[in-house]
Design goal:
2 copies of one chain form a homodimer. By secondary structure, chain A is of the alpha+beta class. The first copy, chain A, has helices at residues 7-17, 71-79, 131-139, 196-205, 260-270, 321-330; strands spanning 2-6, 32-38, 41-47, 51-58, 60-63, 65-70, 85-90, 95-100, 103-108, 125-130, 156-171, 175-195, 213-218, 222-227, 230-235, 254-259, 282-286, 290-296, 301-312, 315-319, 335-340, 347-350, 356-360. In chain A, the strands form 3 sheets. The first copy, chain A, has a 10-stranded antiparallel beta sheet with strand order 11-12-23-22-21-16-19-18-17-20.
Chain lengths: 366, 366
């Protein structure tokens, strides 16, 4: 096996492949990348048994072949090479020689037979959308997945496609995030739960370019993302997702319009009075023209007013300030709308079109 | 007590004062800052019992007074305030009210009587140099202090002034760093050892401006740095520093001139083959026109050549690559000079003027 590629191309490819290399593992072979030289390039494959990545790097292949090598090791070496072409050579003993400029490395390779290659899947459905859209849908919902592994289903996100509507939902039992967009085409009904970790990693790889597309294919147990020279496969989470429709009501008592930046600044300051484990709420006293915010902890107290436009009744509600901040961070609108029912029902933050809906359960007040 | 200052001025002052606030301490009072409102400003004082800082912030003082408060807490609050003036008020119960825009915080203050204020010192000598020079002298030597507290003297740096020569030395028993400059004026002989921690913190506060001066005053047990509106006082380390003159010889067998960037790149790549705890040396085979570098570890092997200009004998020497990197990082010259005696004597890196001299003890080779 023998090939030459540019330092830059290899760097780009391996940095994508590294997203499916586990940090800590009891199976050291998963710390490896498969390098296959074939045709006009090399294919890098990694797999942490939940998430698998295959990405192609252009290369001048002089002798086809396949080898397994520690992924971080080879990434580090190539990254620190001088800015020249990198030559790879593997001998019959699986020993890997790397040349670049006057630098020469010799590191051991491993027979690739032992590596769990990516499964072939039977595609049942597929949709296409822009990389930008997918990245945004993930960013706007991923923060409210649960990390409680004993309730596996909510460690993932619901992806539901119905006609032209594409909906992503995440929830952790005290809050819910919903994002919706209209797709260009109409599709059959698809409803799957994708692991949060998969979406986090994909999000890092997606360029976020509105002109670049990503194809998502679904099989019974897997989802496949294809974009550029990269293919990412992930297991789905089995089970029925929570029915969120029943949580969404429209008979609110109070509607508030508030400037996002001012509201954010105020809540952010309130969190200063919290030590790490503390969960004291920020209390919102919603009056005609302002929300008067109030925070009391062992450290001290804070109060501040923010101007609002209000329709409906006055209301007091106690909320976890961190949950409000999580939502405000991902909303790009200048003004936001809060919808409230009473002091003990979830506070809803959504826009008029309902392209996003966030529910935050309040903290019980005497 | 009552005063008003700009958010920005307070931020600048408290960020300097925080450098003498310990991260962890068994004396919670040391996590506090003394705020004294007096005349046309406030004075912030912090003290971790080894290092003390006093810095002045311009303020409109409406009522003079003095109070103690948790330093990080007040820094965090003011940093997140809107960009407006900040009003401080302390009532008779030591309760602190902070107003900024529509935000209002109430946090407890503490009686300042309990705080260890900075000692008055009897100045015996003083020197003046530019902030740039002091910062550079520290940067070029601080990496080779020892962290071995059982040999206290080498956890600090020797500052020695003799006539117009100012010399800084650090060593950790396997390497030595020496920096020298000529001062504008001539001074009496001064020889003190300043704790490394002090120098690290001062280095972060110094602007590094060549036009700004810093005055350094010495007493029997303390050193005082004064610059801008800030005063930093530190204990000295007692004891006799190592005599380094006897380590400096000039009867070298081999002199090598090498491009710093190429040498650095090569040594840096070699370290990729080291796992954290490993101390394998990089072996330099010094020949007529090149150094052939060689590294062998459990992970793999590397070799690479770098062009040099050489005078004297061929020589092989094994060095800890991390020590070479530490030195190369702080040298700004394009080419560097190595001076060698034999395989078991320290490798010397210095410039012609000897404004810097670095000694690195080699690893014994069979």
């Amino acid at each position: 096996m023998k090939f030459t590629c540019t330092k830059n191309d290899f760097n780009n490819g391996i940095s994508i492949a590294l997203k499916a290399v586990p940090g800590k593992t009891t199976m050291p072979i998963l710390e490896c990348v498969v390098i296959e030289a074939k045709g006009d390039g090399i294919i890098l494959t990694t797999n942490d048994m939940q998430l698998g990545i295959e990405t192609k790097v252009p290369a001048e292949v002089k002798e086809e072949g396949i080898i397994l090598v520690n992924a971080r090791m080879i990434a580090d070496i190539v990254r620190r090479f001088p800015e020249e072409d990198v030559h790879f050579e593997v001998d019959e003993n699986n020993s890997i020689l790397l040349f670049c400029g006057k630098s020469k490395f010799n590191i051991p390779g491993i027979d690739h037979e032992e590596f769990p290659m990516l499964p072939q899947i039977e595609v049942e459905n597929e949709i296409t959308l822009s990389q930008f859209t997918l990245k945004e849908m993930i960013r706007k919902t991923i923060f409210s997945i649960s990390d409680n592994e004993s309730n596996k289903i909510i460690t993932g996100e619901l992806f539901e496609i119905k006609g032209t509507e594409f909906k992503v939902v995440s929830l952790d039992l005290v809050r819910v995030s919903i994002c919706k967009i209209q797709l260009k085409e109409s599709y059959d009904h698809i409803k799957v739960v994708i692991p949060g970790k998969t979406l986090n990693e994909i999000s890092k790889i997606l360029s976020g370019d509105a002109e670049e597309e990503v194809k998502i294919s679904f099989s019974k147990n897997h989802v496949l993302f294809e974009f550029g020279d990269t293919m990412i496969i992930s297991r789905l989470i089995e089970g029925n997702y929570y029915n969120i429709e029943q949580m969404l009501k429209n008979n609110y008592e109070t509607q508030v319009k508030v400037n996002k930046k001012e509201f954010y600044g105020c809540i952010d300051r309130a969190t200063l009075l919290l030590r790490e484990a503390e969960k004291n709420p920020v209390i919102l006293h919603i009056n005609d023209e302002e929300i008067q915010m109030e925070m009391n902890t062992n450290i001290g107290s804070m109060d501040e007013e923010v101007y609002i436009e209000k329709e409906g009744k006055d209301l007091d509600i106690a909320l976890n300030p961190k949950y409000i901040i999580d939502v405000l961070k991902v909303i790009d609108d200048e003004d936001i709308y809060l919808y409230l029912f009473n002091s003990n029902a979830p506070c809803v933050i959504k826009n008029k079109e309902e392209s996003y809906i966030y529910l935050i359960t309040p903290i019980y007040m005497n």
